[in-house]
């Protein structure tokens, strides 16, 4: 069902790797709601991902960008404005990767070069994106910028490792940049803290199945799906939320407010 909540808006969606990616669902829903978008991902991800298939179906130009490289981000913003015919109304940062997790390093034996790369990909890239957009004046007044995060920024989930600190940094960048963008252009910056979701990035976390089942039982509404996350992103990109900024918004079926659930005691 489409209410055309994003009719006439232009957007950039990062991170659609395959049909499981949260960003894949967001891209589909934004177009369904009347937006025109460009899709982007790291050049290396394009080789084994399915982004071109999605781009063709949604009539969305695909523009490669390594989100850690400012020149790639500048190029992406400029090309997106050219392709879409004007300034950008919304952007989704849907990027996460931990080198230490990928290499199986334990939290008490982390490699610091890997850690810096992890922070650069998963968090500093968000600042770089906003700073590039700010300098190029690429975002429409009253626009909306979102990044996806996880509750491990606030609570301990041991196997999430250094991604917890990445997400804490990401959420802090949203608040800090949200101030500057709010003052200058009435642009909103928020993070959405999503339930565990079956994706390439999600299932890379050790013990993900147990983790997923636990959160599902703990949450009164169950885990939020990628599809419902996409609905929430659409609302946050729309004009209906133009006074919401600098927030970390839980989209987790109620998980973040729970202490204990009888459903878990019956395991
Ligand atoms: N899956 C979950 O359980 C879950 C829960 C909460 C939050 N999130 C967050 O949602 C976001 C999207 O992840 P997902 O679960 O859809 O998994 P995903 O693996 O489909 O998406 C991660 C994306 O990051 C991209 N990426 C990695 N390095 C990059 C770089 N240098 N430049 C540009 N892009 C790069 C990947 O190519 C991929 O498309 C991430 O921020 C993730 O942390 C996921």
Structural features, described:
By secondary structure, the protein is α/β, with parallel strands linked by helices. The protein has a single domain (10-265), classed as NAD(P)-binding Rossmann-like Domain (Rossmann fold, 3-Layer(aba) Sandwich), CATH 3.40.50. It has helices spanning 22-32, 43-48, 51-58, 70-84, 99-102, 112-136, 163-185, 208-218, 226-237, 262-265, and strands at 10-14, 36-40, 88-93, 139-149, 188-194, 248-251. The protein has a six-stranded parallel sheet with strand order 2-1-3-4-5-6, with helices on both faces. Helix 1 (22-32) links the parallel strand 1 and strand 2. The chain is globular and about 55 Å long. The model has no long low-confidence stretch (mean pLDDT 96). The structure holds nicotinamide-adenine-dinucleotide (NAD). Residues 14-15, 17, 21-23, 41-42, 45, 66-68, 94-97, 121, 148-150, 194, 196-197, 199-202 line the site of nicotinamide-adenine-dinucleotide.
Task: Outline the fold blueprint.
Layout: E1 10-14, H1 22-32, E2 36-40, H2 43-48, H3 51-58, H4 70-84, E3 88-93, H5 99-102, H6 112-136, E4 139-149, H7 163-185, E5 188-194, H8 208-218, H9 226-237, E6 248-251, H10 262-265
Parallel strand pairs: 1-2, 1-3, 3-4, 4-5, 5-6
Helix pairs in contact: 1-9, 4-6, 6-7
Bound molecules: nicotinamide-adenine-dinucleotide (NAD).
